[in-house]
């Protein structure tokens, strides 16, 4: 599968054409979808432990914190990013990550202390 984080061209022109061809965005709006995807790909958190979904959440939280964008713009950014990865890139691993966040013990159980630490970390990312 094509990894857009390794390809600095990102295939954004193809994405714009895809949006129009499949009527997922109006002609005048496709450029904004490309804008949001480019912004996300250039500024997305690079932590390999984060799922794509977590990266998107962090990015959107950053947009909200910036206070330069209206709610509808942040919603448009989320829609554009999801269309790019899920529809255009056919990324079926939206919620998966290459690394386990909490390593199970020898018996397959997850130590409570590790589970709590990971929960705290995730809550800090989202709030």
Topology:
Blueprint: H1 12-21, H2 27-43, H3 52-66, H4 71-88, H5 112-126
Helix pairs in contact: 1-2, 2-4, 3-4
Keywords:
127 residues, mainly alpha, DNA polymerase, domain 1, 59% helix, elongated, disordered N terminus
Walkthrough of the structure:
The chain has helices at residues 12-21, 27-43, 52-66, 71-88, 112-126. Mean pLDDT is 80; it is low at 1-6. Helix 1 packs antiparallel against helix 2 and helix 3 (52-66) runs antiparallel to helix 4 (71-88). It has 127 residues and is mainly alpha-helical. The protein folds into two domains: 1-96, DNA polymerase, domain 1; 100-127. The protein is 59% helix and 0% strand.
Q: What's the average pLDDT?
A: 80
Binned, the helix content reads: 55-70%
SS class: mainly alpha
CATH topology of the largest domain: DNA polymerase, domain 1
SS elements, strand count? 0
**How far apart, in Å, are the first and last alpha carbons?**
32 Å
Strand content: under 5%
The main sheet comes to:
none
Helix and strand element order? HHHHH
The figure for the number of domains is 2
Q: Catalogue the unreliable spans.
A: 1-6
What overall form do the CA principal axes indicate? elongated
State Rg: 17 Å
CATH class of the largest domain: Mainly Alpha
- In CATH terms, what is the architecture of the largest domain? Orthogonal Bundle
The quaternary state of the protein chains shown equals: single chain
Helices, by number, come to 5
């Amino acid at each position: 599968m094509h990894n857009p984080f390794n390809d600095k061209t990102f295939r954004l022109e193809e994405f714009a054409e895809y949006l129009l061809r499949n009527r997922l965005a109006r002609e005048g709006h496709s450029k904004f979808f490309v804008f949001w995807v480019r912004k996300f790909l250039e500024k997305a958190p690079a932590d390999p432990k984060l799922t794509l979904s977590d990266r998107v959440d962090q990015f959107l939280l950053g947009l909200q914190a910036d206070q330069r964008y209206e709610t509808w713009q942040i919603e448009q950014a989320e829609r554009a990013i999801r269309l790019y990865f899920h529809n255009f890139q056919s990324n079926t691993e939206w919620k998966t990550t290459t690394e386990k966040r909490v390593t199970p013990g020898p018996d397959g159980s997850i130590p409570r202390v590790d589970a709590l630490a990971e929960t705290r970390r995730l809550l800090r990312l989202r709030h």
